[in-house]
Write a sequence for this structure.
């Protein structure tokens, strides 16, 4: 048997058991065009062959599907067609698009399950309506034009050649200097805050905040997460810590949420400034994945130092699947973070390891219902 896996230095379970040998034999067969042609016609194999083919075609065409969604969002068609069906000609006229091409867009929307045909018009389908119900989704889809540019040459991205468009779009990760222009800060803070609602919802379901007395959110942006926790847990004191240009937008949010008297706002950089003490719990929501391991290690040590004995840290962000890779974490967020050029998406196990190295104990992964939104890991400073 040619053992390329063994030669490559891989250790079992790749083989040499019968399962591994069978898989290698099967894969050689499946990769043979003549076998494919036979399998797609034979009664016992054509179902699998058709499913594999359709799945492969979906992967090949995935970026076109995303761009159809992008066009529907840019023209605001999901919202416009929510209540009444409209004919393609009318939409073509409204948006200055040739009628045949508008029909092509609408038909594609139907094919993707976002729209449905009603008589000779088009209306938003359930999936399209669900997209309208996700706060921040439209903003996320729109800013993907930046990520697409970086993914045009995935090999250059993998080799780390040159600065990426996404890194220029999110300048705060390079430190406070890149985040001082008020317009830039307002743009990214708004995008983060819009998409925060679901993250907060999932985090609040996965982690109990009820026994906390005082929560500090480090890298908390303009306070959207803290405001959500503050509304859910009456009496909890709140502290926001983020870069000076970012926290400038927070006061207004806390005032309109009626939380101003429960919140203190600290401007600073966790790279250069000590974290304020006094909170018995600290949250890091969508913060760690922006940073390299050494920055994360330093930050987690600072968080550990700022907590009292028995204090709790809550990490909430999209995570990879570790030994069980999944699409959201290992395909989307891993490549998103790669394009950011500063951090990486990590598995709950990797985050647990970093927390342990920083001195935390009782580290626990608390799964959420929607891991494509966020996952959570909690830990405690020893009593
Ligand atoms: C991806 S955003 C997440 C914001 C918020 N936690 C959320 O989930 O919506 C990362 C946040 O970390 C903040 N940040 C980045 N570097 C920082 C630093 N050195 N010190 C303090 N905050 C920082 C950014 O300003 C930004 O608000």
């Amino acid at each position: 048997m040619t053992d390329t896996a063994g030669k490559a230095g891989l250790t079992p379970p790749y083989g040499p058991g019968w399962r591994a040998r069978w898989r290698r034999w099967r894969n050689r067969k499946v990769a043979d065009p003549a076998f494919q042609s036979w399998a797609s016609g034979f009664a016992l194999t054509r179902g699998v062959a058709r499913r594999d083919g359709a799945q492969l075609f979906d992967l090949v065409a995935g970026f076109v599907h995303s761009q159809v969604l992008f066009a529907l969002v840019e023209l605001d068609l999901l919202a416009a067609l929510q209540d009444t069906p409209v004919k393609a000609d009318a939409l073509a006229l409204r948006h200055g698009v040739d009628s045949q091409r508008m029909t092509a867009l609408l038909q594609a929307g139907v094919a993707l399950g976002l729209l449905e045909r009603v008589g000779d018009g088009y209306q938003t389908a359930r999936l399209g309506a669900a997209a309208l119900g996700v706060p921040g989704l439209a903003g996320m889809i729109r800013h993907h034009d930046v990520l697409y540019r970086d993914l045009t040459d995935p090999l250059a991205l993998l080799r780390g050649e040159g600065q990426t468009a996404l890194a220029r779009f999110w300048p705060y990760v390079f430190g406070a200097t890149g985040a001082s222009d008020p317009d830039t800060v307002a743009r990214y803070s708004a995008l983060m805050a819009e998409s925060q609602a679901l993250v907060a919802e999932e985090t609040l379901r996965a982690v109990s905040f009820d026994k906390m007395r005082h929560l500090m959110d480090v890298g908390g942006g303009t306070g959207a997460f803290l405001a959500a926790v503050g509304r859910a847990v009456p009496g909890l004191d709140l502290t926001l810590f983020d870069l000076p240009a970012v926290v400038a937008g927070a006061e207004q949010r806390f005032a309109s949420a009626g939380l101003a008297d429960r919140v203190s706002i600290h401007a600073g950089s966790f790279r250069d400034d000590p974290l304020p003490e006094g909170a018995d719990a600290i949250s890091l929501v969508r913060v760690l994945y922006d940073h390299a391991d050494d920055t994360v290690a330093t930050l987690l040590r600072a968080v550990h130092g700022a907590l009292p004995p028995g204090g709790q840290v809550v990490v909430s962000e999209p995570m990879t699947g570790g030994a069980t890779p999944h699409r959201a974490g290992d395909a989307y967020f891993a490549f998103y973070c790669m394009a950011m050029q500063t951090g990486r998406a990590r598995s709950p196990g990797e985050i647990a390891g970093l927390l342990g190295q920083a001195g935390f104990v009782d580290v626990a992964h608390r799964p959420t219902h929607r891991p494509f939104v966020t996952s959570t890991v909690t830990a405690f400073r020893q009593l």
